[in-house]
Write a structure and sequence with these properties.
Elements lengths: L4 E5 L4 H12 L3 E6 L2 H11 L3 E5 L8 H12 L4 E4 L14 H29 L2 E6 L12 H21 L4 E8 L5 H8 L2 H9 L9 H12 L10 E4 L8
Parallel strand pairs: 1-2, 1-4, 2-3, 4-5, 5-6, 6-7
Helix pairs in contact: 1-8, 3-4, 4-5
Protein name: NAD(P)-dependent dehydrogenase (Short-subunit alcohol dehydrogenase family)
Pfam families: adh_short_C2
GO molecular function: oxidoreductase activity
Length: 246
């Protein structure tokens, strides 16, 4: 995969950064998309010549087509797209405003549709590619206080299947990784501030521990590789068994 070009949204932090690092370790030129240029610049300098970045807030849906056209003009191809960027909102259902709900859906679902559509046009012109969406356990069972996030991630999984059926005959595989509870700064802060939720998470995870960002990166890399060339339309839980735990 040494000649591949990958895009990772939210690629300079958390799970996205782990995915970026995994691709670069395999010789894949990786373009991080994020909203904070300072962080993008730091990570690009640290990761070397195979890493570059574009600044874009993914809630700017109207700006996505021009961004993808710019990347295509620069690199002539896009082989892998990882739709990882997302935001969350933890709030009582009755307290969530229309604007708050729409903001989460805009970033986590609508922008995924738009960037996938634009990248697909490029992939079709070049004869194929891989798209990997990042979902969540919130799409697999009810989790309180995250209604907008749940709605968006459930939409991601449905869109993955529809895209796979339509695009796979044209050489574009579409899959989805559904992380369980992964040890990141954001998740650690959320669980440490809510001991009851943390106990519930751990008690229903058969492996008895949180995952690592590397675990998600490995799954994404596999689905983008030739090792998964006959896999499309799957929702792959990487969760230590949480989704089937009792």
């Amino acid at each position: 995969m040494t000649s591949k070009i990958a895009i990772v949204t939210g690629g300079a932090s958390g799970l996205g950064l782990a995915i970026t690092k995994r691709f670069i370790a395999s010789g894949i030129k990786t373009i991080m998309i994020g909203r904070t240029e300072e962080n993008l610049k730091i990570m690009a300098a640290e990761l070397g010549s195979l890493c570059t970045y574009k600044v874009m807030n993914m809630d700017n849906q109207a700006g996505i087509p021009a961004l993808i056209a710019e990347i295509e003009n620069e690199y002539s191809q896009i082989d892998i797209l990882v739709n990882n960027a997302g935001i969350n909102l933890k709030k009582d259902f009755t307290e969530v405003s229309d604007d708050e709900f729409q903001r989460v859906v805009q970033t986590n679902l609508n922008s995924v549709f738009t960037i996938s559509r634009e990248v697909t046009k490029c992939m079709l012109a070049k004869g194929g590619g891989c798209i990997i969406n990042i979902s969540s356990m919130a799409a697999h069972y009810g989790i309180p206080y995250v209604i907008a996030y749940t709605a968006a991630k459930t939409g991601i999984e449905g869109m993955t299947k529809a895209m796979a059926v339509e695009l796979s005959p044209k050489g574009i595989r579409v899959n989805c990784v559904a992380p369980g509870f992964i040890k990141t700064n954001m998740s650690s802060k959320a669980l440490d501030s809510d001991p009851e939720r943390k106990q519930k998470v751990m008690s229903r995870t058969p492996m008895g521990k949180l995952g690592e960002p590397f675990d998600i990166a490995e799954a994404v890399y596999f689905l983008s590789s030739d090792g998964a060339k006959y896999i499309t339309g799957v929702i792959l839980p990487v969760d230590g068994g949480n989704s089937i735990g009792f």
